[in-house]
From TrEMBL, chain A:
Protein topology in the membrane: Multi-pass membrane protein
Keyword Transmembrane helix part of the UniProt annotation: yes
Family according to the record: Belongs to the UPF0014 family.
TM ranges: 6-28, 35-57, 93-118, 130-148, 191-213, 225-246
Organism: Billgrantia endophytica
Protein name: Iron export ABC transporter permease subunit FetB
Presence of the UniProt keyword Acetylation in the record: no
Compartment(s) where it occurs, according to its Swiss-Prot or TrEMBL record: Membrane
From TrEMBL, chain B:
The protein's name: ABC transporter
UniProt KW ATP-binding keyword: yes
Keywords carried by this UniProt record: ATP-binding, Nucleotide-binding
Domain of life assignment: Bacteria
PROSITE patterns: ABC_TRANSPORTER_1, ABC_TRANSPORTER_2
InterPro entries per UniProt: AAA+_ATPase (IPR003593), ABC_transporter-like_ATP-bd (IPR003439), ABC_transporter-like_CS (IPR017871), P-loop_NTPase (IPR027417)
Signal sequence, renumbered to the chain: none
Amino acid sequence: MNVIELSWWQLALAASMVVVLAGCTAVMQLGMSRSLLVAALRTVVQLSLIGLVLEALFAAERLVWVALMALAMLLIAGREVMARQKRRLLGGWTFGIGTLSMFLSSFTVTVLALTVIIGPEPWYRPQYAIPLLGMMLGNTMTGVALALDRLTDTAWRQRAVIENRLMLGEPWQLAIGDIRREAMRSGLMPMINAMAAAGVVSLPGMMTGQILAGTSPALAVKYQILVMLSITLGTGFGTLAAVAVGSRRLFDSRERLRLDRLSTPRP
Amino acid sequence: MSRKCLRLDRVAIGELAEVGLAVGPGEIVCLSGASGSGKSRLLRAVADLEPHEGEVWLGGQAQSDTPAHRWRRQVMLVPAESQWWADRVDEHFPERIDDDDLESLGLEPEVMSWQVGRLSSGEKQRLALLRGLGRQPAVLLLDEPTANLDEATTQRVETWLLTKVRILGRPVLWVAHDKGQIARVADRHLRIDGSRLVEEAMA
């Protein structure tokens, strides 16, 4: 089946309607027009640029370029995890924990899905590897960022409770147990919700894209199931690692709660 | 149950430096000093909740050689503001509490089945003492244990604590403000003066 070609003037038509929407909000003084236009512009520019990069990458089909691209994506995701924290762990620990846990989970699961399950030739074929890794990283990033933020912020707020439990002779794992569970929950909730609603409430974006591009729904569904399960694996193990290392870092070798290892939130 | 002595050897935390102090079994040492002079921080150092200099000994056992949670289980700090994290009061007590103990503290037995939100600050304070003692510690560190209590209840709590401490033979470090209380309970009285502890004469 052939995909219907989209030309730039057709996109311009869609864009002009966004401009109309921005105009309407401006007329009604709803104060959203500026950020709406900026965000729309960013989408166009960022996606066009990544389109060029992907074209080049697909043409070259070299492992070293794919690996470099993956590394860049990982570092940007690590930076993003750090930026989403109210209270960071000082000394680069948030970036370190975030990047490491995303690396361990996303990369492992992606490589596993590529080599064992999908099996393209060669295994790192960028048409498969990059979008798959992108979806893994994007979701794992959200999970890790949410979980770490919840962990450090709740520990900060409940310092008196944690310390009182330490005073009663509880080991640190027990004293912060409730908070760890909450952090884990907030990291995994988005993915659990997405899986629960998939196909009933929402048609996942990737599947929709494949169907629009001419893939049969039956095959698109299989890919979607694979992707969602892989994402859940990646998010789950990534969040698990981040919560385990992050909560340990809140205590020192004498099991004292060390909130001085957290940054103060920016006003 | 063995009776051990608590010994501080050149402990330094915050303003306080080179604190040396020995508390014998069944002995109550009261600590006083202006607000912010570091009374609570000294107790936190003894319980190893804050980084500090020096060594604390429980009998022949050194703080730094003991796993931290095991140390705190033996050297029990009961803070001025206790925390209650579970829904019901009795979820915070691993073992059943004697009704006699509750009664001696002026609490009714039903209090154990209450929701935590129902507790007044005075009830929380008395229950925190019960909770700490229920863990069977070797040393008690009490941070203003009667701060939220009226006079009659304060005396009840003092009597109960004195009896327990004498029977069990536990060393006690007790942070207190009230001169009358210090006179009633203390065997010795130390006042924080700048970076040192000064022994005050007992009446």
